[in-house]
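your task:
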Amino acid sequence: MRYLNMLIILVLVTCFICGHNLQAQNEEVSPSSTDNTVLNSDMVGVFETPELVAPTDANTELNTEMGDAANFYATVMWAIYNGTGEQNVRESKAAYDVLIEEFGLEGESPDALAEFVSPHDLSFIYTERATLQFNILQNIPGAEDDVRQAIALNPESVPATWLLAQILTRRVFASIQENRRDARTQALQEEMLTVLKRVIELDPDHHRAHYYLGTMARDLGEIETAITSFKALTRIMPFDDQFHTELGELYEMQNRLEEALLSYERVVTILPEQLSARNRLGQLYLQTGDYPGAIKTFLAILTRLEAQTAEPRTANREPRTANISETEIEAHYGIGLAYQEQSGLEKSEFHIMHAISLLEARVASMRGGTRRVRSADRVALTMRLQEMRHALGQIYLRFNAPRKAINIFAKILETDANYVQALSGIGMAYQMLDDLKRAEDYLRKAIELSSKSELPDAYNALGYLYAEQGIKLDEAAALVRRALKSAPTSGAYLDSLGFIYFKQGKLDAAIENLELAIRYLPDTPEILLHLADAYLQKGLKEKALQTLEQAIRLEPDNAELRQKLDAVKARR
C-alpha cells in the first residue's frame, strides 16, 4: 500500500509538471461536422470552442519542497525496483545511501526531518538497506547499525525488529561455533531472546519468530520458553506435524509424559503413516503404564510395515530402509515389554525373540560395509543385543522360568564374561533352582565387578540366599540394606531384610520391616508367610492366623500355607 501511494504521488507530480506544455486547440465546429443536424441561432454557441489564453503570468514550477518530495519518492521506488529479485543490488544500495545521506537524521531528532518524510518512512528506508546488507551483501555490522536506527525511528516496526532478531541469532551461532562462553556471549543470548519476544509481542502470529525463539530457547536450556513458542506454532499452523513433534520432545525433557502423549497422538492423526511418531507414542504408553495402548500402537506399526512390502512407494510414506527396520525392531521389543506386564510370557517371549533375530540379521548384513563403519555399528548393535537378551532373561526370572533364564544369560556371558547384569541374573536363576553354590559364585562376582555402580537386585539376592541357609546373616543384612538405599520402597527388599532379622531373632525389627513390605506388596503370599512366622515367634497367634488366612485367600491351593495354618490352629 505504501508503494502504491508513492506511485500515485509521482504520477500526479509528473502530470502537474507537464501541464504547462499543453497547447489549446481553437477550432470552430463546421456545419458539416454536425451530420445533417439543423442549427439555429440558440444552438450555435453550444458548439463553439472558446479560445484558450496561455497563462503566461502563472507560476507552474514546482516549489523546492515539492521537488524534494518528487525526488525522494522517485529514488525510493528506484531503490525498491533494483532490490526486487536482486536485479541490481548495489544500485539499490546506492539509492538507499543517497536517501539516507540527504534525509537521514545523522544524530538529529525526528523533528528535524523534512515535512514530507515521516520517521516511519525513514525507518522503512533504514530497514530496507539493512536487509540488503544482511541477506545479500553480508555486511552484518552495517546491517545491525541500520536496523537499530530503524527501530529508534519506529519502535513498533515488526520488519525492523524481526531483522534485528535474525542478526542477533546469527551472532549467537557464530559465538557458539567459536566456543565462546564469556559474559559477552551470555549478554548476546539474552538480548536475542528479548528481541524475539518483542517481535512476538508486536505480532503474536509471527510464526518465524516463534520458531526461532522456540529452537534457540530449547538449545539454551530455557525449556518453558521453548514450550510456549511451539504451543503457539501448533495454534498458528495446527496441521504442521513438525511443531507437534517438537512440542512432544520438549514435554518429554520435562517428564510431562501425559502432555507428550497428546502431542504425539496429534502427529499420528496428521500423518498416520509416520511410523517413527507411532513408535515414540508406543514408548510413551509403556512409560505411563498404558500397556493395552502400547500393544495396540506397536501392532499398528507392524501392520503398516507388512502392508508396505506389497504397496508401491508414495510421496508421504517412509521408504522401507534401515530406519524402518529400526522401527520394526523397536515395535517388537515394545510389544514384548508390554505383554510381560499383562502376564503374557508366551507373547512377550515371541516378540522380544523376534526383535533379537532382526538385530542379529542387521549385524550380518553389515559385513559388506567399510571396516570402520562396520566395526562401530556392530559394537552398537552388539550392545543392544545384550540389552534385549538381558531383558528377556529378566522376564524369564519374573515368570519363574529359571532354566530359560540361564540359557539366555549364558549367551550374554559368551560375548562378555564380565557383563554384570547377566552375572547377577544367572546367579538369581541358579538360586531359584536351589543350586546355591553357583548362585553365590555368580552373585559375588557381579558385586565385585560393580564397584562403580549399584546392583540392588544382586545385593538382595545374595543376602536372601544367605538368610535361607542361615549363614553370614550380618553380611546378608548389610547387603539388603545397601539394596534399600537404591530402592527404599521395594517390598521385596524389605521382605528380605525382615526375613534376615527373623533369622537373627530380632523379632520387632523383623515385624516392622515385614509389615512395611506388605504395605508395598499387599498380595504376596510369601511375605505374608514370613510375617506370620514372625508373629508366631513373638507370641501373637491371632495376628499370625489372620495373616495366614489372608495368604490362603490369595493362594487357596498352596499346601505349605494350609499346613502352616492347620499347625497354628492346633496350638490354640
